[in-house]
Amino acid sequence: MYSFMNQLKHSTTRRPAGNTSRMSSCPRFTELTENVKFLDRYDDRRDDRDGRFDRRANREADSDHRRRGRSASPLADRGPAAANEPPVKKKKEELDPILTRTGGAYIPPAKLRLMQQQITDKSSLAYQRMSWEALKKSINGLINKVNVSNIINIIQELLQENIVRGRGLLARSILQAQTASPIFTHVYAAVVAIINSKFPQIGELILKRLILTFRRSYRRNLKQQCLTASKFVAHLINQNVAHEVLCLEMLTLLLERPTDDSVEVAISFLKECGLKLTEVSPRGINAIFERLRNVLHESTIDKRVQYMIEVMFAIRKDGFKDHPVIPEGLDLVDEDDQFTHMLPLDDEYNPEDILNVFKMDPDFLENEEKYKTLKRDILDEGSSDSGEEGDGSDDDDDDEEDENEEEGDDEKVTIFDKTEVNLVAFRRTIYLAIQSSLDFEECAHKLIKMDFPESQTKELCNMILDCCAQQRTYEKFFGLLAGRFCLLKKEYMESFEAIFSEQYDTIHRLETNKLRNVARLFAHLLYTDSVPWSVLECIKMSEDTTTSSSRIFVKILFQELCAYMGLPKLNQRLKDQTLQPFFEGLFPRDNPRNTRFAINFFTSIGLGGLTDELREHLKNAPKMIMTQNQEVESSDSSTSSSSSSSSDSSSSDSSSESDSDSSDSSSSSGTPD
């Protein structure tokens, strides 16, 4: 229909103008003309509608560009002529290679040094950033090169870098290298152990990140990451960087709800640190293998995992001969320099990821100088550094400096450790020895073998007392241990005597539970005569000289003594005549008020039988006071009478002397010449 009407329209338009007047009178022609006009209007409307559709499409394209963050193409706005023109190339923004994520393209060391020399301000942001990038590349390169044969050289080169500033980079490099090459885990553990002996905060940071990695992998069921992380932890335990408690916690977690993967990780972990656990915690490893036996017989695990458990029992039977604690050539840290971190598995840790990122240091130059001093102390590079700093001086000046150094060597410089690092390390060693011992005899043997100086004797006794106080309830282990040391050497007994007096003076600082444990420990020492009973001399029973804490201490002390000895024997010991001077403060007789206070106190704690003599003394006190007053009065009267008689005799003597003098003078005057 539409094509026919178009043909009709075109045919009518091609007719000559002369026939229009004749055809206009024809009704058929009129009808056709109206139809043509209708078609023209239809075409106009259709064009308008198509235009609206085109505009709508353009609007949608514009909105799509805006949604994607791009504006519409400028060529579409400039028309067809502009669209044919070639696009203008934008200039590439020049990026600072130092500011890119990977540190930019490789810069040769000579060029990098030249760039650093061109920066005059050493504390500027640009210089710090360049030194940070150089530090990062150096640490990465050294960690990737380390092996058993060159580990000592690598450590020396590593300490040349400021690893205190780049401790985050160092931790990340070591963890990434160990994840990529688990076969070298023992080497990386030795590196961490050496660095930890000099910088314990770096070892702690690495261990924290390792614990967080293990926990995250365990939650996400990533077996391979769990295997690598647990292997690293095992070797750190072997190197005494981490405590064996962390190992037991990880094994308990893996075997709590056993699956094929968790049991496989536990067995791999146990192979690496089983020998170390056997040495330091036999009870713990026995419990772990008992759990493995239950898993083998009760759990529905894969045959392959069952075979792994059986192989693990065979390895234990052979004494872990193929899995030594520390491989040969990697035992590089002295036992005295080792620093063990007590980091439980379930605590919240901050990985300190901000240390991986560059941050401007306002005290950059000062911190660099501090690290240089520390580096010289560690590497014994004082002579070489002084030679490098004095390259421009004359030979005469060098000779003078050598003479001054020789003179200075004669005078020893005493260094006072105000940070108490050695004390903290000593207390940690004592704590670990106590916690890893089965009985007090084994613990005493371990502590004696440590061969610590005599100046630490009192600190050892204090540590035993502190460990006892920290327990929830009193454990006889600590009383037996303290008693054994008191019997071994007189110095230990004297130390505990001094500690008793100090503890009683500061007893108000202790919580009730700690106070109870301390009192029971000293009661055990008194009962076994490990310390003399003269230590009770510091106790003064009166309302003014005691506090609530001190009264609780005395109460628990004597109740424990009564439980050990019985009331008759305790009373007999307190009535010993040789010890009475030391019990004058405990059972005061100087003032009836204090005597009454002591009687009431011991009666209230159920030990009134100890105060029989005090009661008799209190009854006889008025009579004694009266007799004392009478004696005082009689002594006063006797002294007054004796003084009067002495005055009379002196006056008579003086009169007789005057008479004799007068007679002598008269006789001399009557004699003739």
From TrEMBL:
Annotated GO MF terms: RNA binding
Top-rank lineage group of the source organism: Eukaryota
Ranges annotated as biased composition (Basic and acidic residues): 45-65
MI domain segment(s): 425-541
Region called Disordered, residue ranges: 1-28, 45-95, 376-413, 627-673
Compositional bias annotation for Polar residues: 1-10
Family annotation (SUPFAM superfamilies): ARM repeat
Gene3D superfamilies in the cross-refs: 1.25.40.180
Coiled-coil region(s): none
UniProt keyword list: mRNA processing, mRNA splicing, Nucleus
SMART domains: MA3, MIF4G
GO terms for cellular component: catalytic step 2 spliceosome; nuclear speck
Protein location: Nucleus speckle
Biased composition (Acidic residues): 380-410
InterPro entries the UniProt entry points to: ARM-type_fold, CWC22_splicing_factor, Initiation_fac_eIF4g_MI, MIF4G-like_typ-3
GO biological process: mRNA splicing, via spliceosome
Compositional bias annotation for Low complexity: 635-655, 663-673
Family the entry assigns: Belongs to the CWC22 family.
Protein name: Pre-mRNA-splicing factor CWC22 homolog
UniProt gene name: CWC22
